């Protein structure tokens, strides 16, 4: 029997992540194994919804928790306010070099700001395509290869994707990138009028063919809809969840793919997502927190314990593993090209303000139409405001 005195002397770390099997279970599993290897440590993980993730500030979370699973656009804000601890000051350079060389796309640099590494990329994701192979077969339809193919399938009521504001903004960025211009590269405009207008028009042509219920669904709710009903056969772009490509996870199996071609011969370019493990500046046991983070992000753990428990690893060795792909209907192998070319969003201090509000403007346009130039003008004003926040902070 373990004495209560021994339990009371344990070093306790508290962590916060997001409430999906992909977000919570691998953290609980890695914490359990780490505790078995370090009996004097206890790591408690809590979860919150994606909406709570968006609503509660990183300052509030860092005051409450030692370990934070964060979205990379927070990096600039968190670094500027010294809310989290840079890994370079604590971890061996060789480990960080391995992380850098084994980055899935720009996952590792997405947490690097002002020359410091503020989180480890334990989870990698970008919008990819998803299908119900059984439904496509019953429709005698092949996987869409071009945007025109996607529109044709959407005309049959068989296509859906997330139309929540944040996902709509990420998809708008994707249409811009796929038309040959990355957004947010200038100080005073989100995108040139020529590309922005075309991006909005392409986007609306597809959104008009999708059921209105998807204005209420985030990416994994879209996948839940696809696996629990037999209507939607194809999702052209949504942040990938390898869970749905695993036998036994859901009623039906999804397969995941690279994106369709919008123009030219190259598939579309989506907007990088994923999640990083960061350590609060308020943590009183930084060395232990760093050691646990190093354990979670290591190649052996990422390719076994992490992925075995529903995680979507951020280490390239896991993405290239034959065993990992065998168990996930080749999710990682088939979507790696999409990750490798994904667009890295801005991470300047004020960008979260823009990101929190700009999607509403595009959603309004997709629902009700309007003047595309007017939409771009509104976005540009918001964008300039967010740039001003950066200047004022600096």
Q: What does this entry look like structurally?
A:
The chain is of the alpha+beta class and 394 residues long. Helix content is 47%, strand content 12%. It folds into 2 domains: 11-125 and 273-336, D-Maltodextrin-Binding Protein, domain 2 (3-Layer(aba) Sandwich), CATH 3.40.190; 127-271 and 346-392, D-Maltodextrin-Binding Protein, domain 2 (3-Layer(aba) Sandwich), CATH 3.40.190. The chain contains 18 helices and 10 strands. The strands form 3 sheets. Strands 2-1-3-10-6 form a 5-stranded mixed β-sheet, sandwiched between helices. A 3-stranded antiparallel β-sheet has the order 8-7-9. α2 (21-37) links the parallel β1 (11-18) and β2. The relative contact order is 0.18. Residues 1-6 have low confidence and may be disordered. InterPro entries: SBP. It comes from Sphingobacterium paludis.
Features:
alpha+beta, D-Maltodextrin-Binding Protein, domain 2, single chain, disordered N terminus, 2 domains, 5-stranded mixed β-sheet, 394 residues, 18 helices, 47% helix
